[in-house]
């Protein structure tokens, strides 16, 4: 009975994920063509024509990018025998996994919370479609309402599928040589020492650990390096502390990688981490389990915010990054073997992934005439996707700190946006048009473009029209509330149940922050993508 229920959820989620955008856009095109001439300027401004135009233009540009961008790199991939493939999805696989999944202390989704989530989804759908049928075409915002239906339907499909995600399990995991690469730049010594201690406490120890000081000017690491060279040696871990002039994170990673002695590039694992990463004691043990599947080339671990209680900004960021992006978006993408980007603090790769990344110009990436220094995690994840599957392992946990100051927070998201924009060109170019990677990238860009137009339309409506109560504007709040339920369902040993509910009830602020701050930052990042410097700190900050 339970398996049938999960199979039904998986089937509905999969169909909705692809059907909602196709059906919604088809309906919008049909309606706007049959009502091509609007009776007034106001009706034209508030119609679906403008967001539809933006949506279709971005889709057309996505196809143009596919056939024109990075042709020399495509030729290089062809020469070395690598061709990106569609990832086949076996319907019913995750329903079966969900039933057979053993309860784990690090990952145990509550059955009660699943019931609440599904009930909330059904209620939300009933209320939304009830509102749409009552208002019909009489409301002045009816022209843009189908876009809310489309984006909301995809969000619900993503949420439903993510409830079926389960981490990889294996009763017998083969021994693997794990090599850790840690770039360091102006990181406080106490943070690095905590990271070192968490590595020493692992249930599965790494074979090699290479830390690279990328020309730090504010901190001297000589004493730290000398101290831990002895400590790691006592634990039978090969430890190296290298120094280079300030050349960036990618150069530091490759210096560490080139210093390794690797005998089996397919079965030896590279673990890239940040200098403030603190591992949960089972992180490496859990992170290497998915590699029992020969098609898996990349594993994304989970980051947990250490400083979540600093202020409202860290609470909002944690809910967005952990609750929405990691627990929902990434979990769903993992089910299709198509995680788009790993988390910098904890990412596992087969060694051959870094070899391929080097061949694709990882250290000296160019976008136009600009050299790209950030977006290293997305480059490595993309390289893994070219070789096979990129998945998430929610039982491989690391603790890190998120910015607790608005200026640092905005700079971080600006860098992420610029990197996401640049990497989008690579994904659209390298992966087949009928692949899940291309689908998510093109649809994501097109939806974002249409939503920018819709926000402008809503501002016009609020200022010049406002002929009815703006019930439509409550939709993002409702969707965010349902999305945020995922945060409650995941166990966190470092956070009391009461505190998790406090984070959950921050969802209204999360929506407002995303709409009025992060969305403009994302757009500005896209427009200023040529500013490709890392923006490294010249002072110590969180």
UniProtKB/TrEMBL annotation:
It is found in: Cell membrane. Residues 180-354 form the Glycosyltransferase 2-like domain. One of its GO terms (biological process) is extracellular matrix assembly. Belongs to the NodC/HAS family. Pathway: Glycan biosynthesis; hyaluronan biosynthesis. Coiled coil: none annotated. It comes from Enterococcus termitis. The chain crosses the membrane at residues 7-30, 50-67, 112-131, 143-168, 445-464, 471-490, 502-521. One of its GO terms (cellular component) is plasma membrane. SUPFAM superfamilies: Nucleotide-diphospho-sugar transferases (SSF53448). This is Hyaluronan synthase. It catalyses: N-acetyl-beta-D-glucosaminyl-(1->4)-[hyaluronan](n) + UDP-alpha-D-glucuronate = [hyaluronan](n+1) + UDP + H(+); [hyaluronan](n) + UDP-N-acetyl-alpha-D-glucosamine = N-acetyl-beta-D-glucosaminyl-(1->4)-[hyaluronan](n) + UDP + H(+). It comes from the Bacteria. Its EC number is 2.4.1.212. Keywords: Capsule biogenesis/degradation, Cell membrane, Glycosyltransferase, Membrane, Transferase, Transmembrane, Transmembrane helix.
């Amino acid at each position: 009975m339970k398996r049938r229920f999960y199979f039904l959820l998986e089937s509905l989620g999969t169909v909705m994920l692809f059907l909602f955008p196709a059906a919604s856009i088809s309906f919008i095109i049909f309606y706007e063509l049959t009502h091509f001439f609007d009776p007034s300027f106001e009706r034209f401004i508030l119609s679906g024509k403008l967001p539809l135009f933006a949506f279709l233009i971005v889709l057309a540009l996505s196809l143009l990018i596919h056939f024109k961008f990075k042709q020399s790199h495509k030729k290089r991939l062809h020469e070395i025998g690598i061709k990106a493939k569609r990832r086949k999805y076996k319907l019913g696989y995750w329903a079966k996994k969900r039933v057979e999944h053993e309860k784990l202390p690090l990952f145990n989704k509550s059955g009660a919370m699943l019931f609440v989530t599904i009930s909330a989804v059904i209620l939300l759908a009933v209320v939304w479609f009830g509102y749409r049928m009552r208002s019909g075409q009489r409301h002045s915002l009816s022209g843009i309402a189908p876009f809310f239906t489309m984006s909301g339907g995809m969000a619900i499909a993503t949420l439903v599928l993510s409830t079926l995600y389960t981490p990889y399990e294996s009763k017998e995991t083969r021994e693997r040589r794990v090599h850790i690469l840690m770039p360091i730049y102006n990181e406080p010594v106490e943070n690095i020492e905590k990271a070192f201690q968490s590595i020493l406490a692992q249930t599965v120890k790494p074979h090699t650990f290479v830390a690279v000081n990328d020309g730090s000017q504010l901190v001297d690491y000589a004493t730290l390096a000398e101290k831990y060279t002895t400590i790691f040696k006592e634990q039978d871990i090969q430890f190296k502390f290298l120094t280079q002039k300030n050349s960036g994170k990618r150069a530091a990673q490759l210096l560490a990688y080139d210093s390794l002695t690797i005998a089996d590039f397919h079965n030896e694992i590279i673990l890239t981490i940040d200098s403030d990463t603190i591992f949960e004691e089972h992180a490496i043990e859990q992170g290497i389990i998915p590699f029992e599947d020969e098609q898996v080339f990349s594993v994304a671990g989970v980051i947990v915010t250490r400083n979540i209680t600093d202020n409202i900004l860290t609470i909002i960021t944690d809910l967005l990054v952990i609750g929405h992006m990691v627990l929902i978006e990434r979990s769903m993408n993992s089910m299709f073997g198509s995680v788009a980007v790993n988390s910098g603090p904890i990412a596992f790769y087969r060694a051959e992934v870094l070899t391929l990344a080097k061949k694709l110009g990882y250290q000296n990436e160019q976008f136009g005439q600009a050299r790209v220094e950030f977006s290293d995690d997305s480059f490595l994840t993309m390289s893994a996707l070219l070789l096979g599957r990129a998945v998430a392992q929610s039982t491989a946990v690391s603790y890190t700190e998120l910015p607790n100051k608005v200026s640092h927070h905005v700079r971080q998201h600006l860098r992420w946006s610029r990197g996401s924009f640049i990497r989008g060109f690579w994904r659209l170019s390298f992966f087949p048009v009928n692949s899940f990677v291309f689908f998510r990238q093109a649809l994501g860009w097109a939806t974002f473009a249409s939503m920018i137009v819709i926000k402008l339309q809503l501002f016009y409506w609020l200022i010049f029209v406002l002929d009815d109560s703006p019930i439509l504007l409550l939709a993002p709040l409702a969707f965010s509330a349902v999305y945020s339920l995922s945060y409650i369902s995941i166990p966190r040993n470092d956070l009391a149940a009461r505190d998790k509910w406090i984070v959950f009830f921050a969802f209204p602020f999360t929506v407002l922050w995303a709409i009025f701050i992060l969305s403009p930052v994302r757009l500005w990042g896209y427009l200023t993508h040529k500013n490709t410097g890392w923006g490294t700190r010249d002072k110590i900050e969180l």
